[in-house]
């Protein structure tokens, strides 16, 4: 940042000019050449009489005119420069900014104004992401739930998503529905949920493991119209592996909740952008399931499953369901501790 030079005393022969803030910014003007004031020569009486008697030649007349014009121009430029420098000094000295920033005072104001406006705009956006639009009931939900969302999707968010699940059938059902997210959205899956329950025996893993693969994957059946053949076969295969886990651990619930020590993770996210797609815990569970022979259980699918069954509470803190899920988690943890003590 250039600093305007100080004004020297007007008595000196040379002057330095302060910069003037013009359209191209506050730049230093080039110092004009020093003005040399010619001292008047006092002529004697004899010389005066000689000059008055001798007629003036044309060359002499031209020289006198040119010297007179140049002296007038110098006087005008000096007065104008002095006025410019005084205006510049008064405008900069009146500013509360320091001397270092006074040379670009107008620019500083513009920049600070633009930064403040953009900051206000960004803060407004961030505040909007804390919670979604306020619904007719006066409640704020997570921002991916809007008043235009499908009612089944809103109901799933308000009643199930993030609530700790300890039922084997419900755990298996949400694992199958989360696996279908690679082909369908939650809205599409939830709209077909009742039909899927009818096809897959209310997602009872023992009953599903006994179903015939060919009957379900035959073209024209109800199952093939709801899900792809790959997803249908993965549900059937996973049901058989869930059955083995039940035989080993006593329940599918016990196997799943051991990964979080029977205590849901409270994420405490404030913005939607903070919610991850997967976590190290989801990757660990996914590897263990794949080792056991499960299909369609990628880390992304498993994390969606963890969110749905309440292994992690990813409601934003601005959502009205966050505190409800926290209370449900505390109740569930207390019950699990008491049950372990009895056993």
Automatic annotation (TrEMBL):
The keyword Disulfide bond does not apply. Residues 52-62 have a biased composition (Polar residues). Residues 1-62 are annotated as: Disordered. InterPro entries: Adenine_glyco, DNA_glycosylase. Keywords: Metal-binding, Zinc. Residues 8-18, 36-50 have a biased composition (Basic and acidic residues). Coiled coil: none annotated. It comes from the Eukaryota. It holds the Pfam family Adenine_glyco. Zn(2+) binds at residues 142, 157, 315, 319. The keyword Zinc applies. This is DNA-3-methyladenine glycosylase I.
